[in-house]
């Protein structure tokens, strides 16, 4: 049965592709990114969906939308090779069209998954050798001309599966349709098995030369491939045309999930743009950070610590004098550390400096006062700053409720511990709930909106419960501590700090 499908227009007349001939002679599509290859493949698949079973190897997940309109089964590539081979075998048995989506896999895993699936279809029993149109997008990934960053085993496995598809698949009913951005990157023994060609826009000389050779054109005519518009291709082959024929691909019914970027005006900047950018999203604290490990330079803290322990030889004091300076009790050293920390935090501007800046100032002051012993580490320093900023006194610090608060604070990030402990201290002591201005200062900002967002984050985490009394004053309760603050005015000014507050 001869079935011709409409691919678009050729010189004003319908451009017809013979599906039965295509099944016997295979197709190669070439074009740079943005030339319309995916659009062409989608047109071919939509027009032939009712006539032939289809299998699409989709590295970017663009063709999964065919399932809604034409009933293709979507197969996720994140399976074992044995599972994929079994699914492919059953796909052939039951003659079901499908899309193998490899989105989210790295290149080597994509190659292995595609190879397992293609081999599963290739190895099907003879009684299931029904005709199948096998479309492979970005074929240069699965049949590379040279080795790349993937293992040799994965490259051989994928290249072997693609070679079987294009060279030996015809007798098993498998008709390969492969699309590539670069002919030069596609293995020649795979590309050479196609007898039909649709060549789109390309700019590199080596790709234009290969395209001209495949189409039987003079190399001087290869320049035309630079001038092709998006969605325009030159066709040649027994299923298309016996002579090179320019074709404009027609419209499609479905669309890809991704699309080409379009220019669009920027939105008007909101008034609270700084709050939107610098206030952390609650989900950010739950999202694991994955960073590639790299050799780090020697930390500044280590250098400063070494400097604090060293003494210039020219000004070295006698051994007895130095011993008298070094030999201090642990209690006295702790008092000196607390005194230096208090000096730093007494400065109103310190609330708006980062912990790393304060830490460097702390280390310098320790050296100037010749406090003996190794300096405390940065995490310990941050912890001390958070406790100091909470305003807790010695009596409160000795209570079980405060111990519970310290335990709970370890569950929040370092930059939020100061705010959390300040609220906890108010709850333990029964003090009024801190105002937005005071919370903002504890976080190192002037924004009242950000302060309210921090409270919202704590509440979403189940650490606190925010409610109001009958007069509308705010109360913060700590379920795990069985304490809550006294009612407080959220809009009250911060008596202990800078009165500037971001306009709402």
TrEMBL record:
The keyword Ligase does not apply. Residues 309-328, 481-504 are annotated as: Disordered. Residues 23-309 form the AAA+ ATPase domain. One of its GO terms (molecular function) is ATP binding. Pfam families: DUF87. Residues 312-324, 486-498 have a biased composition (Low complexity). The keyword Acyltransferase does not apply. It comes from the Bacteria. Keywords: ATP-binding, Nucleotide-binding. InterPro entries: AAA+_ATPase, ATPase_Atu1862_pred, HerA-like, HerA_central, P-loop_NTPase. This is ATP-binding protein. It comes from Rhizobium leguminosarum bv. viciae. The lineage of its organism: Bacteria, Pseudomonadati, Pseudomonadota, Alphaproteobacteria, Hyphomicrobiales.
């Amino acid at each position: 049965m001869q079935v011709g499908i409409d691919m678009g227009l050729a010189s004003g007349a319908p451009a017809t592709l013979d599906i039965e001939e295509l099944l016997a002679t295979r197709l190669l599509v070439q074009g740079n990114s943005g030339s319309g290859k995916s659009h062409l493949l989608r047109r071919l698949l939509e027009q032939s969906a009712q006539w032939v079973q289809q299998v699409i190897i989709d590295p970017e997940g663009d063709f999964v939308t065919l399932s809604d309109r034409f009933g293709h089964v979507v197969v996720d590539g994140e399976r074992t090779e044995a599972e994929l081979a079994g699914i492919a075998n059953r796909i052939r048995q039951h003659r079901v069209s499908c899309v193998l989506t490899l989105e989210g896999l790295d290149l080597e895993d994509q190659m292995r998954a595609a190879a397992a699936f293609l081999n599963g279809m290739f190895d099907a029993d003879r009684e299931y050798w029904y005709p199948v149109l096998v479309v492979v997008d970005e074929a240069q990934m699965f049949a590379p001309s040279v080795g790349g960053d993937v293992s040799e085993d994965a490259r051989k496995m994928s290249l072997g599966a693609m070679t079987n598809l294009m060279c030996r698949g015809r007798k098993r009913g498998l008709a390969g349709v492969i699309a590539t951005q670069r002919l030069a990157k596609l293995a020649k023994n795979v590309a050479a098995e196609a007898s039909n060609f649709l060549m789109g826009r390309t700019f590199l000389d080596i790709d234009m030369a290969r395209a001209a050779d495949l189409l039987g054109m003079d190399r001087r005519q290869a320049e035309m491939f630079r001038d092709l518009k998006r969605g325009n291709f030159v066709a040649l082959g027994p299923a298309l045309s016996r002579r090179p024929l320019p074709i404009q691909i027609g419209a499609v019914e479905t669309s890809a999930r991704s699309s080409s970027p379009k220019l669009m005006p920027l939105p008007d900047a909101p008034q609270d743009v700084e709050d939107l950018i610098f206030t952390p999203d609650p989900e950010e604290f739950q999202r694991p950070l994955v960073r590639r490990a790299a050799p780090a330079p020697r930390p500044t803290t280590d250098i400063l610590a070494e400097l604090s322990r060293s003494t210039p030889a020219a000004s070295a004091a006698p051994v007895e004098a130095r011993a008298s300076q070094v030999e201090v009790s642990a209690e006295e050293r702790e008092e000196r550390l607390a005194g230096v920390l208090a000096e730093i935090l007494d400065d109103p501007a310190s609330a708006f400096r980062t912990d790393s800046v304060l830490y460097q100032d702390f280390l310098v002051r320790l050296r100037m006062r010749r406090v003996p012993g190794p300096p405390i580490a940065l995490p310990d320093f941050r912890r001390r700053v958070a406790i100091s900023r909470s305003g807790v006194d010695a009596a409160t610090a000795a209570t079980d409720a405060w111990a519970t608060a310290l335990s709970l604070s370890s569950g929040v990030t370092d930059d939020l511990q100061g705010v959390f402990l300040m609220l906890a201290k108010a709850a333990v002591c029964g003090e009024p709930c801190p105002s937005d201005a005071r919370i903002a200062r504890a976080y190192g900002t002037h924004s009242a909106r950000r302060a309210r967002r921090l409270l919202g984050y704590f509440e979403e985490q189940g650490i606190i419960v925010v409610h109001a009394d009958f007069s509308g004053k705010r109360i913060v309760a700590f379920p795990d501590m069985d304490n809550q603050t006294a009612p407080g005015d959220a809009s009250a000014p911060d008596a202990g700090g800078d009165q500037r507050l971001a306009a709402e």
